[in-house]
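Data availability excerpt. The first of two example chains:
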Amino acid sequence: MSIVISKLPTKAPAGMTKKEGKQKTAKMAERISDLIRIMYANKKHSLLVVLQGMDSSGKDGVSRNVFSRVSPTMCSAYSFKKPTDEEFAHDFLWRVHKQTPAKGEVKIFVRSHYEDILIQRVHKWINKKTVDARIDAINAFERNLQLDNNTIVMKFFLNLSKRRQLEKLTERIEVPEKNFKHNDGDWEERKHWTKYMRAYQDAMNRSEIPWIPVPADDRWYRNYFVAEKVLKKLESLKESYPTFDKKPDIKLLGA
C-alpha cells in the first residue's frame, strides 16, 4: 500500500497517557538493551536504524530515549551533514558504507543516505535521472546489507506536523537552554515544506525495505512507538547467549 503523508497521523492516539507511555518506554529500553547485548554476544546480526524527518522532528530524542541503556561499545549514532570535499569527490554512498554496523552492533543514522535524494532534490541540485539512479543504488545498497551481513534495516520517518515544527523551532529561540539548537537554515528549509513532503513520499514509496511512519508531534509517544517496533524486531530473532559445546577444563587452564 502506498504511503500518503497527508493521511498519516502526527499525534498520539487516544487511550494512553503521557505518564504511562514514558513508563512503558523506559521498560522497553531496558529490554532492548538486554537483547542488543545478546545480539552482540552472538555476532550473527547487526541492526541499522535510520531516522529521517524534518528539522526538530526528534531524531536525537529518539536515539537518546530508545537506546539510552545500551552500552556505547555495542551501539553508536552517526549524523550525516553536508559532505566534505573528500566525500564530494566520491560516489554518494561512499561515506555511508563505512558507517554501517558490524555484526553484533547497532548503528543509528541521524539523517542518512536519503539526504542525497531529499535536500538535493528539493533544491534541484540533481535532476530526475540522478534521483532515479540514486534510488536504485540505495535499494541495492540496503539489499546488500541484509543479504551479505545479516543487517536488519529499520527505517523510521518521523512525521511531524508543520504546526508542531513551528512551535519547536520557536522554542529554540525563546527558551535559553534550547538556543544552542537554533539554526537559521532550519527556517529556510521550512519554506520548502511541500516540496520536502513530496520528496519524502516518493522516496518511501520506491523503497524496497518498507518505511515505518512515526507520529512525532508528541515526543513521549514518538519514543514509545519507535521503542515498541525495535523491541519486536529484536525479539523476533529469538536469540540467547551462546554457550560452550564443551566447557574448558579450568585445571588445564592453569587455575
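And the second chain:
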Amino acid sequence: MEKYKIDKRTGWEYELKGDYYYPTGRIMKNGVLTLETVDNELEEQYDIGVWGRRHLRFIRQHKKSLYLDLFLSGKLNAYLADVNAQAEEMFARLVKDMAAREGVTEKLKAEDQMYWVQEMNRISALAREIVHHDLIFV
C-alpha cells in the first residue's frame, strides 16, 4: 500500500499509519502541496468548560461525523465554547426559576440551612439532568 495518498475530490493528503489513512493537514492546490491548519494549535483558544468537555466526549463517541467535520474545519473549539456558554446560561436560569417556584429563598436559608442546602442540591441535580438531556447529549 502507498504511504501517502491524495484524495482527488478534496485535495487532502493522507498518510498510512498501520491499517488506516489519516489526514496530514496538507492540501493539493493547483498541483502544489500546501500546509493547512488541520489541528487546533493555530485556532483561537476558547474556554470550553465542563459542559463543553461533556459534549465533546459525547460527539466523539456517538456523532463521529460531526466531530470529524468540526475538527477538520478548525471550528471545534468555537463550537464547544458556544455549547458551554448556552449550557451555563440554561443551568443558571433553571436553578433560579425552580428555586423561586418551590419557595427556596434566602429567608429559608436563614431559618433552616440544612434543608435549604438539601433543596438546592436537589434543584441543581434536576437542572443538570435537564441541560444534559436538552443540550449536551443531543
